[in-house]
C-alpha cells in the first residue's frame, strides 16, 4: 500500500473541495485532494445550471402562452419537443461541467488521489485499498446527496431524484414531486410549463424556504393557481403498478385524491456525505445528525486541525456559501496553527420559480424567536399586484415583507415572492451586509418605472411603523430574547 505524508488533505473534489484545495495551496505546497467519484460540482452537473436550463425552456413556453394578454396572438399550437429540450439541457450542462474539469485538469496529477477516503484516526486517512495518508491538517468537503424515506425504494426506477431528470432523453407524461422546497418548486413548475402533468406535494405546509406565514400562504396560493401544489398532504398508498406509480392521498382539505404518474421525484432534502468517512475512528464532536460541529467563522471542528466546508457542513447548502466556507477552511488549514475568522456574507437565497421567491438576512422565524418577549422588530409590506412596472409586464403577482429593528431603524431581513425578485434580494443583501438603516436605504436612488419602486413602498411602510430613538434602542438592547 502506498504511504503519503502531507501538510493538508482535502476530502472531496466538488465546489468546496476545489476551493479549499486552492486556498490551502496558497500557503503550503504539500496539499492533496481526494475524490471517489467524478470531479466537478453539484451545481454544474445536477444542480443550479441544468435546472436553470430547464427553467429557461419552460419560460419560453410561458412567454408564448401569455402573449394574448398583450393582444399578441401566436399562430398555431405551441409544440414542446421534449427530446430537443433535453438535448439542449444536456449539451449546455456538459459544457458547464467541461469548464470545471478544465480547472481540475490544471491541478498537478500528484495532488489528485482517486478513491474514497476513511479516517483511521484524527490524522490518518485510508483511500480505498491503495493509499494511506498521514495529514497534518484535513478538510472535509464531501458534499451531500438526495435523501428520501426508505420505503420509497420499492418504486424501483420509477423513483427519481433531480440528478436523474437531467439525464432524460425525453420528457415524461406525468410526475409527482414530493418536497415543495427549492428543487421541488423549480423543477415542478418547469416540468408543468413544458407540458408534463405535474403535482407537487409537501407535509406541514412549507413552501420553499419561507418562514413568514403571510408570504408563504401567498406563494402557495399563487403557484397553486398554475399547477397542482398541495404543501400539506397525507399519503395513504404509494405503490408501483407496472411502469406507473399509483398514489392515494388526503389533501389539505382532508379529501381523498388518487393519481397515477410515470415517476415520483423525491425532492425531500439532502444529507451530508459524512456517514461513510469513518468518523467513529476520530475524536470529532458530532451534532444530532452525525455531522462534525464547526465554527461558522473559521470552519474549524472540535479537533483543531480538522476543518469542514460546503454541503458536508450542514449549514447553508448554497454554492456561494460553499465557496466562502471552502476559502475559509482552506486558508486556515494551510496556515494552521494560525486560524482566523473569514468573511461570512449576509444570508441570501433565491428560488427560481415564477414568481421568484427570495430571502435575505434574518428570517421572520428567527426574528420572532429573538424578539418574542419585546416586539422589537416591525414589518413593512408591499403588494406587487398594483405596482406600476409589474402591471405593465403582466407580471403583477407577489408580496414583499421587509423587517426593521425598533430604536435603531436597522434593516434586519426580508422574505418575498414577486417578479424577478432575485435583483431586489441582491440589493437588500448588500444593504444588510452594510448594516444600513431603513432611512439610509430610502436615501438611495430609485428610478421610474422599475419594480424596485415596490421595495421603496415597503421601506416607507416600515419607516412609518418604526419607533426610533435612544430610549427605544435601549429597551430593545435588553430584550429577553437577545
Automatic annotation (TrEMBL):
FAD binds at residues 52, 142-144, 311. Binds 1 FAD per subunit. InterPro entries: FAD/NAD-bd_sf, FAD/NAD-binding_dom, FAD/NAD-linked_Rdtase_dimer_sf, Pyr_nuc-diS_OxRdtase, Pyr_nucl-diS_OxRdtase_dimer. Keywords: FAD, Flavoprotein, NAD, Nucleotide-binding. The keyword Iron-sulfur does not apply. The keyword NAD applies. GO terms for molecular function: flavin adenine dinucleotide binding; NAD(P)H dehydrogenase (quinone) activity. NAD(+) binds at residues 179-186, 269. It comes from the Bacteria. Residues 349-458 form the Pyridine nucleotide-disulphide oxidoreductase dimerisation domain. Pfam families: Pyr_redox_2, Pyr_redox_dim. The active site is at 448 (proton acceptor). Residues 7-326 form the FAD/NAD(P)-binding domain. Its cofactor is FAD. Disulfide bonds join 43-48. PANTHER family: MERCURIC REDUCTASE (PTHR43014), PYRIDINE NUCLEOTIDE-DISULFIDE OXIDOREDUCTASE RCLA-RELATED (PTHR43014:SF4). Belongs to the class-I pyridine nucleotide-disulfide oxidoreductase family. This is Dihydrolipoyl dehydrogenase. The lineage of its organism: Bacteria, Pseudomonadati, Pseudomonadota, Gammaproteobacteria, Enterobacterales.
Amino acid at each position: 500500500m502506498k504511504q503519503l505524508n502531507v501538510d493538508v488533505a482535502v476530502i472531496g473534489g466538488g465546489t468546496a473541495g476545489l476551493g479549499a484545495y486552492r486556498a490551502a495551496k496558497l500557503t503550503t505546497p504539500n496539499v492533496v485532494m481526494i475524490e471517489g467519484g467524478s470531479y466537478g460540482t453539484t451545481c454544474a452537473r445536477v444542480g443550479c445550471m441544468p435546472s436553470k436550463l430547464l427553467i429557461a425552456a419552460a419560460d419560453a413556453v410561458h412567454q408564448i402562452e401569455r402573449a394574448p394578454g398583450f393582444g399578441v396572438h401566436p399562430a398555431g399550437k405551441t409544440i414542446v419537443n421534449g427530446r430537443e429540450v433535453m438535448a439542449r439541457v444536456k449539451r449546455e450542462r456538459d459544457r458547464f461541467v467541461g469548464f470545471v474539469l478544465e480547472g481540475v485538469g490544471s491541478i498537478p496529477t500528484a495532488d489528485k488521489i482517486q478513491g474514497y477516503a476513511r479516517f483511521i484516526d484524527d490524522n490518518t486517512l485510508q483511500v480505498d485499498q491503495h493509499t494511506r495518508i498521514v495529514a497534518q491538517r484535513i478538510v472535509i468537503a464531501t458534499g451531500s446527496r438526495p435523501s428520501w424515506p426508505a420505503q420509497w425504494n420499492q418504486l424501483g426506477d420509477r423513483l427519481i431524484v433531480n440528478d436523474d431528470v437531467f439525464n432524460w432523453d425525453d420528457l415524461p407524461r406525468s410526475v409527482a414531486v414530493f418536497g415543495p422546497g427549492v428543487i421541488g418548486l423549480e423543477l415542478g413548475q418547469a416540468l408543468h410549463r413544458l407540458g408534463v402533468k405535474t403535482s407537487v406535494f409537501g407535509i406541514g405546509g412549507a413552501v420553499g424556504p419561507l418562514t413568514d406565514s403571510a408570504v408563504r400562504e401567498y406563494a402557495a396560493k399563487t403557484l397553486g393557481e398554475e399547477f397542482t401544489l398541495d404543501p400539506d398532504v397525507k399519503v395513504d398508498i404509494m405503490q408501483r403498478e407496472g411502469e406507473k406509480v399509483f398514489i392515494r392521498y388526503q389533501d389539505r382539505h382532508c379529501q381523498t385524491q388518487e393519481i397515477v404518474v410515470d415517476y415520483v421525484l423525491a425532492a425531500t432534502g439532502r444529507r451530508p456525505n459524512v456517514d461513510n468517512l469513518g468518523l467513529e475512528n476520530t475524536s470529532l464532536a458530532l451534532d444530532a445528525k452525525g455531522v462534525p460541529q464547526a465554527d461558522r467563522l473559521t470552519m474549524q471542528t472540535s479537533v483543531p486541525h480538522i476543518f469542514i466546508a460546503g454541503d458536508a457542513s450542514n449549514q447553508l447548502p448554497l454554492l456561494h456559501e460553499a465557496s466562502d466556507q471552502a476559502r475559509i477552511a482552506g486558508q486556515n488549514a494551510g496556515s494552521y496553527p494560525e486560524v482566523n475568522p473569514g468573511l461570512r456574507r449576509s444570508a441570501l437565497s433565491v428560488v427560481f420559480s415564477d414568481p421568484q421567491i427570495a430571502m435575505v438576512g434574518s428570517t421572520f422565524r428567527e426574528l420572532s424567536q429573538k424578539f418574542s418577549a419585546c416586539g422589537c422588530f416591525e414589518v413593512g409590506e408591499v403588494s406587487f399586484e398594483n405596482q406600476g412596472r409589474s402591471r405593465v409586464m403582466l407580471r403583477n403577482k407577489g408580496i414583499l415583507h421587509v423587517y426593521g429593528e425598533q430604536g435603531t431603524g436597522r434593516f434586519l431581513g426580508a422574505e418575498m415572492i414577486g417578479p424577478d425578485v432575485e435583483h431586489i434580494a441582491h440589493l437588500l443583501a448588500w444593504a444588510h451586509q452594510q448594516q444600513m438603516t431603513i432611512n439610509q436605504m430610502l436615501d438611495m436612488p430609485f428610478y421610474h418605472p422599475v419594480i424596485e419602486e415596490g421595495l421603496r413602498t415597503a421601506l416607507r411602510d416600515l419607516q412609518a411603523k418604526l419607533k426610533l430613538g435612544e430610549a427605544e434602542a435601549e429597551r430593545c438592547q435588553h430584550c429577553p430574547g437577545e
